[in-house]
Amino acid sequence: MNRIAIIADGEFPGTDFPRYLIGTADAVVCCDGATDNYLEFSDGRLPDAIVGDMDSIVNPGRFADITVKIEEQDDADIAKAVKYACGRWPEATQIQIFGATGKCEDHTIGNYGQLMQLSKDLPGHNFEIISDYTTAFVLTWNDTIDCGEGRTVSVFTPDNSLRLKSTGLQWPLDGVVFDNWWKGVRNRSCADRISIEFSHPSAVLIILN
After folding, report:
1. What is the C-alpha separation between 190 and 30, in angstroms, rounded?
2. Average pLDDT of the chain, as a whole number
3. DSSP state, 194?
4. How far apart, in whole angstroms, are the C-alpha atoms of residue 120 and residue 132?
5. Measured between alpha carbons, how far is 26 from 36 in angstroms, rounded to an integer?
6. Start-to-end C-alpha separation, the chain
7. Distance (Å, rounded) from C-alpha 142 to C-alpha 51?
8. How high is the pLDDT of residue 58?
9. Bridge-based pairing state of the strands 152-156 and 187-188
10. How far apart are CA 19 and CA 173, in angstroms?
11. For 68-93, what is each residue's pLDDT tens digit?
């Protein structure tokens, strides 16, 4: 067990690459409201689990044997599904989340925030949000990204005390004060590999498209 697909109830992928990743995942966990969208795609493969408070699923009784009901409202559905998956399959290090964007802008923003929180709360896992348009992931310390020259790179952090240094970006991050969301948007890689250096450990959201 290496790679788990989490399916949320946003825009289900329509392009080949994310659909291939879902279809070849070692396990699939659906947030409750995403179950029908997944079943339309999966050609008969049931999810390994359906997680949530079951307020969004049609006829939940038909999936009673794979349903994990979690009624508490402290966590969003994605966090519930991810935490369940990491507990059930602790050996899986790669968690890919689909359907986390689109439809509702507020949910999209919240889910990117969840990605940063999960990366801090569950170290040792690689979390990604993947859509038809972008791949998003979180860095928490100095790292390099092999993304290819010419890729659009956006950088976000809720930590306005963080200072970053970069190589391989058309507009270096050195000296940028991240006191508003737009400060790191729509940069571009000018080399195949980007490196980012942190002033202190924190959470940085990277979105590639």
Report:
1. 38
2. 93
3. E
4. 26
5. 20
6. 28
7. 34
8. 58
9. antiparallel
10. 33
11. 888 776 678 899 999 999 999 999 99
